[in-house]
């Protein structure tokens, strides 16, 4: 947003939620409540039906408590390890039936659900399958993640410290709140 001060956060979120030939957009935030606020703003910025894969239960908690209103065309799943494969298949079926916005909230929760050494391969395969189907069916996938800079000035996932690397197939954004205003900007990890 620094490069175009006339562009609002809603404009950026609309761009992020539009289907592209690229992979999923990844939005990093250092605060969980900013992430939940962004999910709500992302839904407000689009008229597309949406699926939320709520791994950390924050968004669904706000909806359940009545603090956030959920549209009728937004489906919220709270995957657990035992039903993740079934939910993944259900989301892919929905993607085949209509153009969707799929929000993964959060990447951290998905990784934490599988804590074995080789689980990263399965998690990445799940995300790649969603991204492939999104490109094929003109849907959008947006992944939220909690992250911070470590002492070496690298962005890492919270908790656990897995380093976030850039990909030519994904767009990275950072969401921050300054003086009460939430902003989102592209993040370039190349040094």
Q: How would you characterize the overall build of this protein?
A:
There is one protein chain. Strands 1, 2, 3, 4, 5, 6, 7 and 8 form an eight-stranded mixed beta sheet that branches. Strand 7 (171-178) and strand 8 form a beta hairpin. The model has no long low-confidence stretch (mean pLDDT 84). The longest helix has 19 residues, at 119-137. The chain has six helices and eight strands; from the N terminus they run H-E-H-E-H-E-H-E-H-H-E-E-E-E. The relative contact order is 0.22. By secondary structure, it is α/β, with parallel strands linked by helices.
Q: What is the radius of gyration?
A: 16 Å
Helix vs. strand class: alpha/beta
Fraction of residues in β-strands = 15-25%
Low-confidence stretches: none
Quaternary status:
single chain
In short:
This protein is α/β, with parallel strands linked by helices and 191 residues long. The protein is built from 6 helices and 8 strands; from the N terminus they run H-E-H-E-H-E-H-E-H-H-E-E-E-E.
Distinctive features:
single chain; 191 residues; alpha/beta; 8-stranded mixed beta sheet; 6 helices; 24% strand; globular
Write the layout of secondary structure elements.
Layout: H1 9-17, E1 25-29, H2 32-44, E2 50-54, H3 58-65, E3 74-77, H4 84-97, E4 101-105, H5 107-113, H6 119-137, E5 140-149, E6 155-157, E7 171-178, E8 181-186
Helix pairs in contact: 4-6
